[in-house]
């Protein structure tokens, strides 16, 4: 019987667990913006796009320069930011607190879920005249509209996130004799945080929309008032400059939420 030597070829096994892990490709978004702006500039210069439909991006950039040089940019932006911060902070903080209570307490859920379900579909812009009657045409009505519009989607996102926390983790905490507050603080809130932050992205976008609507009624300064004035004069350069400011504001808020996610959700793999 001849001796036979069994030889095995060792091949590396590729890692298969990273297919659903998103990787950062920030330059792709920048390239998309640059390509779209370049196409718009080329189309308007070549006459493919009518000047009555879309202004040249270069003209919009000049308008930004004029706004900055005259100081009107910061005057409009600072007023809008103060309204947005106060209204959104009030609505989001109360919304998160109410959403957590709905997720944790059965009686609160039974009492408030039907109320939230009734308020959520109401177009918040339609309530602006009512808020003007209640709080006056000054800042109070604007704060109230933004806060109310931010409150309802934040509540829905928060108690949905609390409901989606893995019950196995909660039972494991109970098996280790953790107190109720320890389970909420160490298991429920961290587990619900991804859903809460995702809901905040939507709520802040709604807050920007309501900010513009509120500033179009009885406001001297603000991005919404600036856009309304430009639209009434059919000044497309100023109109698109105001819309661009809102877009930049939305991207900035989304980036801030992303930074908070990376800081608070470092435990996720």
TrEMBL record:
Keywords: Cell membrane, Membrane, Transmembrane, Transmembrane helix, Transport. Gene3D superfamilies: MetI-like. The keyword Cell membrane applies. Residues 77-261 form the ABC transmembrane type-1 domain. InterPro entries: MetI-like, MetI-like_sf. Belongs to the binding-protein-dependent transport system permease family. This is ABC transporter permease. It comes from Parasedimentitalea denitrificans.
């Amino acid at each position: 019987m001849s001796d036979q030597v069994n030889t095995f070829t060792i091949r590396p096994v590729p890692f298969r667990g990273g297919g659903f892990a998103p990787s950062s490709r920030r330059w792709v978004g920048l390239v998309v913006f640059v390509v779209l702006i370049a196409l718009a500039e080329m189309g308007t210069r070549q006459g493919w796009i009518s000047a009555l439909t879309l202004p040249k991006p270069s003209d919009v950039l000049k308008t930004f320069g004029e706004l900055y040089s005259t100081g009107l940019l910061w005057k409009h932006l600072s007023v809008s930011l103060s309204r947005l911060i106060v209204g959104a902070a009030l609505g989001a903080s109360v919304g998160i607190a109410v959403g957590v209570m709905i997720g944790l307490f059965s009686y609160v859920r039974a009492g408030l879920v039907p109320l939230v379900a009734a308020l959520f579909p109401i177009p918040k812009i339609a309530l602006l005249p009512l808020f003007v009657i209640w709080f006056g045409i000054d800042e109070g009505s604007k704060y109230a509209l933004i806060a109310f519009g931010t409150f309802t989607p934040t509540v829905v996102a928060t108690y949905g996130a609390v409901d989606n926390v893995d019950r196995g983790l909660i039972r494991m905490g109970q098996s280790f004799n953790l107190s109720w507050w320890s389970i909420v603080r160490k298991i429920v809130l961290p587990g619900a945080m991804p859903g809460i932050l995702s809901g905040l992205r939507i709520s802040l976008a709604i807050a920007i929309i309501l900010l513009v609507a509120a500033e179009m009624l009885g406001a001297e300064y603000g991005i919404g008032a600036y856009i309304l004035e430009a639209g009434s004069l059919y000044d497309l350069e100023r109109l698109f400059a105001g819309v661009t400011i809102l877009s930049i504001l939305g991207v900035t808020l989304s980036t801030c939420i992303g930074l908070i996610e990376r800081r608070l959700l470092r435990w996720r793999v």
